[in-house]
Amino acid sequence: MRRALLWIPLLCLAQHPRDEVQAAYRAWREADPNLEREAAAGGAPIAQRADRLSAEAGKFAAARKALLESVAQDQAVQVSLLDASPIAPESAAVSTVLDAQFIAAEDAHLTRMIRAFAGNRDKGIQRLKLALEKERTALNALSEAIAERQKSADGVQAASGAAEAARAKAMGEMRPMLDAANEAAGATSSEAAAWAEYYRKIGEGAQGEATPITVVPPGVQAVTLNNPAPAQPNVTPLPLVRYIGAWTYPASNGVFHGAQPEMVELEVSEANGQAKGTLTARFKLPPGNIGDPALRFEFSGPLQSTRNQVFNLVTDNGVKGRVELIPGAAFNLLEVTFQTESNPTKIRMADVVLVKK
Amino acid sequence: MTRFATLLLALAAAQGQGKPDSLAALRQAAEKSAAEWDALAKGLDQKIEHLLPCDPAGKAAVEEISRASAARLGALSAYVKAEAAAARENTEAAKRALAAQAALGGTWAAERAESDQDHTAIEAQIAELKESMRKRSALNGAEQTLMELSRLAKERAAKAEEQAGRKDVVNLLLGDLISAYQLRQTALEQESALVDAESARWSFYYATRLARAATECAIINGAAAPKKREP
To answer: What kind and span of H or E run contains A78?
Structure first.
């Protein structure tokens, strides 16, 4: 029910292009919501259920990829629309420079002629002077028109510059959106592959007898490090790296039994077959408990030829106890259990799974 | 349907890309005819200074340059009109882009919401798988993969949010672009009208130039006529 509620916002957002994707998502998520919870039961049925979900996840991924590709395609069209419209610099034909030069030269020529004929009373010359003056008037009118057109051309040039700058800015924001859509479409494939891998691992993990995380499954070989440096002979059946080093309790989804830790830090070192370590922890106390949530102890002792290493510990306030280091199923996991003698106001026992830093 | 619309838009874009070619041809024609007019205009005085006023070659020279002027302004007018038309298309394209961006911005918002939901669902899966791992350690590998998938879903949500956040900026910039395109379109339309008006004035100027040549010829003929009657 809780999971079913999760899909409600998706349904509210449902619109035509996403319908297919959301339907595929629901089909996948609602097909077998209890697989993870029931995976511990193991066996062929779990593997079959995982296979089925893998197929559903694949359908969802294909629908989502198609949607994102279509989004990328739409975005590409928008980008190409703007990309296809760069504004070229203004043509030389628009310039009025030659016109202005021509008019200035002709005007000077006409003015000289008109001046030369000034005061001449010959009728023919008077007619010619009149024609010249008409020509100069036409030239002046042309000069005004050209000046007006030049002003307008300057306006076009300024508007072109502003438009080109605005286009570049818009493209600067739209191109990353196109890249993101392409990237998202591409990432869908790798996510789909990861889901297939996940369900395959569920199927594989469901095979054979159930084994808790602190027990080595039968037939599992000890891992050999490909280390070119000569390795020291190991006393422990597993590599030393499974015990020594810096370990921490994960900030989320940590595994524990008993007292719930808030923080656990463990440092373990080894020298000449002797292990030495320090554990610092703080626990969440139940409501009403006025005890001390902090605990720190040190331990040391010879490494043993057993998988689990057990050492004596001494807390900061001198209380003695016992700590056990249990290598986890994965290389980077170490289960730590400890118990102290009577230690008023302090946590006396805990069991936590730490992750290697 | 979406694909069909996309195809239409792509075709429109392709057509739009074809325009610059015709615009370039018009631009070239305008520049060529401007150069021709300029050459004729500069050479006119030299061409007619040794001709007698009534020599038909003088009138022909002025008529030739008048025709070149008309051709130049005609080519310029066609080019500026084409530029104005292209500017109008640019304005429309920017408007279409703005409308399409509204839908695309919504897509990213939905993508973010879905990725968030997916991330929550995966976290729930991880919690349940961890419980199962207490009994079956071999599920550890699956858990690691699931944690990676959780990280991917979270990353996907963050990326989608970033793109959804661009929506307002893109809308604003496209709004600015539309305004800028419209201003340019208006300026070009005004320039086109001025070129046409100027063309009429050039015609009038060359008419007065021809009138002056006719007057010069008439004066010469008026002086020469009595001489013909003398014998």
So the answer is: helix A44-83
